[in-house]
Amino acid sequence: HTRSEYQQHDNLYHWYECTVCGEILSEKEEHKWYEIGDGIPGMICGDCGAFSEAVDGVLYSVKNGVANVVGIEPSVRQVRISESYDGVPVVGVFRLTWKSPGWFFTPRVLESVVIPDSVKIIGGAVFKDCSSLKSINIPNDVTTIGNSAFEGCSSLKSIEIPNSVTTIGNSAFEGCRSLKSIKIPNSVTTIGDSAFKGCSNLNSVEMSNSVAIINDSTFVDCSSLKSIEIPNSVTKIDKSAFKECSNLSSVEMSSNVTTIGESAFEGCNSLTNIELSNSVTKIDKSAFKECSNL
């Protein structure tokens, strides 16, 4: 038998079962219910992460005339978020911040999520460390992808960012090591620190031409990235932006860049040539350190 990572449950009990045949492998134990607080309805089991008020594994909360997703049960594999709840639209997807005595309940077995068009915000860390997540959509009216929203989603191979998005938060896609390509639409004006850090299989990036700064560590350790075109909207490449991009051999530099930060291209040992315009007035220390072929 292969025991499930998370306990299965019904309204009264939770238990472990075999992921292959479904046989129950442990005694059924009663839920240990705790209040969630912060105006969120129902209770949470401190042992298995079940919600007393969940709908198909999803917990919703209504406030100020709109509903938000505030939690996903850790044993759920497929989720389809409702467009409305209790008669009001669902506009945001957020991570429950309640903590049991020991660990956050993270739905690591979650494989696919369908988000309705009513959603405008994907909150911070909402899918962080969902290492089995392979399929998810970002609706066309989403404006913000929060800090660490998809950090550690190591099975996510592709994602489409719609041209409604203006902000990609810090570490939003950090550690998405199966992600192979990303197109950042021109609606995006801000890409946070470490947004694509450690995306080791990322080999194609199409940048927004509305971004002014490539922030700290944005693409650090993207070791499969071979070329990058930095649009003319960019005036600053911040520290460690492309550090340890060991296969980066071609950089088409914006003619408006004035500052190249500390260690911006450190360790880019496949880089053989880079042409800087007269607009560059500052190159910080170690900007091209260990670029041994430059």
Q: What's a quick, concise take on this entry?
A:
With 294 residues, this protein is an all-beta fold.
What does this structure look like?
The structure is a single chain. By secondary structure, this protein is mainly beta. Helices cover 0% and strands 26% of the residues. The chain contains no helices and 24 strands. It has strands at 8-9, 13-15, 29-30, 33-37, 40-45, 58-63, 66-72, 78-80, 84-85, 88-93, 112-114, 121-122, 135-136, 144-145, 167-168, 181-183, 190-191, 204-206, 213-214, 227-229, 236-237, 250-252, 259-260, 282-283. Strands 6, 7, 9, 10, 12, 14, 15 and 17 form an eight-stranded mixed beta sheet that branches. It has a four-stranded parallel beta sheet with strand order 19-21-23-24, with no helix packed on it.
Oligomer: single chain
* Biggest β-sheet description: 8 strands, mixed
> Spans of 5+ residues with little confidence (pLDDT < 50)?
none
Count of β-strands: 24
* Distance between the amino and carboxyl termini: 55 Å
